[in-house]
């Protein structure tokens, strides 16, 4: 069984991809519903929340854990990998995908939570690609709250995005990086309303990375059935309908 962690429902967008890539694995999804959104928490608080979830998932028997939350990754991944010896896979904003496919003269709009955009890890990613001069950062914490409140194709969301995007001349951009798993719910909405932008997220790359890691470690399952269970802040969910709905099941 594989543990998948997010502060809320955002990581379900990655779980959907994981199930597609690894149909013979079982999954335990942990949403930290009591503490979402993480954007307004301190780094110390986030680290504590994430570690509690990781310990919970491991105690339930997960052989590997996926941090399906960019914010959690940025705050905790180095600490967790140092402390624990089981595989912990982490999502990160798909700026490399955007850069590799970019058109000449276009800039990249990197959207994430304020915690992610101000993290050393994000800075290091940009510096390792040497693209600081073409990347602009736009925090969109409002999208996390809209998603958690199940507000999707709504005028309020459109107004919010228009206001935030008005800080930039969108003609200068091709790719918009959705560097927060909650933002993936708005991928189609962004395409429809801002057709010059092409959204990219890190979900596919993370699923591939998990598969390769499990293969390398000889941990790939051949007998799971894509079974899924859900936990909210340490308690098993009885009525799974909300989670299943987000997964399109
Ligand atoms: N889904 C999370 C991410 O990928 C963050 C949401 C939050 O602010 O809690 O960054």
Word description of this protein:
The protein has 249 residues and is an alpha/beta fold. The chain is 43% helix and 18% strand. It contains 11 helices and 10 strands. The strands form 2 sheets. It has a 6-stranded mixed beta sheet, with helices on both faces. The mean pLDDT is 96. The structure holds D-glutamic acid. D-glutamic acid binds at residues 6-8, 10, 36-39, 69-71, 113, 116, 144, 180-182.
Explain the layout of strands and helices.
Elements: E1 2-6, H1 12-21, E2 27-31, H2 43-59, E3 64-67, H3 70-83, E4 88-90, H4 95-101, E5 107-112, H5 114-117, H6 120-129, E6 135-139, H7 141-148, H8 155-165, E7 173-178, H9 187-193, E8 198-200, H10 203-216, E9 228-232, E10 235-236, H11 241-246
Parallel strand pairs: 1-2, 1-3, 2-9, 3-4, 5-6, 5-7, 7-8
Antiparallel strand pairs: 9-10
């Amino acid at each position: 069984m594989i543990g998948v962690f997010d502060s809320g429902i955002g990581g379900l967008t990655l779980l959907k991809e994981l199930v597609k890539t690894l149909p013979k694995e079982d999954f335990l999804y942990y949403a930290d519903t009591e503490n979402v959104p993480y954007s307004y928490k301190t780094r110390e608080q986030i680290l504590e929340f994430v570690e509690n979830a990781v310990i919970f998932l491991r105690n339930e028997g997960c052989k590997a854990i996926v941090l399906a939350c960019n914010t959690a990754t940025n705050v905790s991944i180095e600490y967790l990998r140092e402390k624990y010896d089981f595989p912990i896979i982490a999502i990160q904003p798909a700026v490399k995908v955007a850069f590799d496919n970019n058109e000449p003269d276009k800039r990249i709009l990197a959207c994430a939570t304020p915690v992610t955009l101000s993290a050393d890890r994000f800075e290091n990613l940009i510096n390792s690609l040497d693209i600081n001069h073409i990347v602009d950062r736009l925090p969109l914490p409002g999208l996390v709250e809209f998603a958690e409140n199940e507000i999707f194709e709504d005028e309020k969301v459109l107004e919010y995005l228009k206001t935030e995007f008005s800080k930039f001349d969108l003609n200068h951009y091709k790719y918009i990086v959705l560097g927060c798993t909650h933002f993936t719910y708005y991928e189609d909405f962004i395409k429809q309303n801002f057709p010059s932008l092409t959204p990219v997220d890190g979900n596919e790359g993370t699923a591939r990375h998990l598969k390769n890691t499990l293969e390398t470690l000889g941990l790939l399952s051949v007998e799971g059935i894509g079974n899924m269970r859900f936990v909210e802040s340490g308690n098993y969910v009885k009525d799974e309908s909300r989670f299943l709905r987000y997964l399109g099941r």
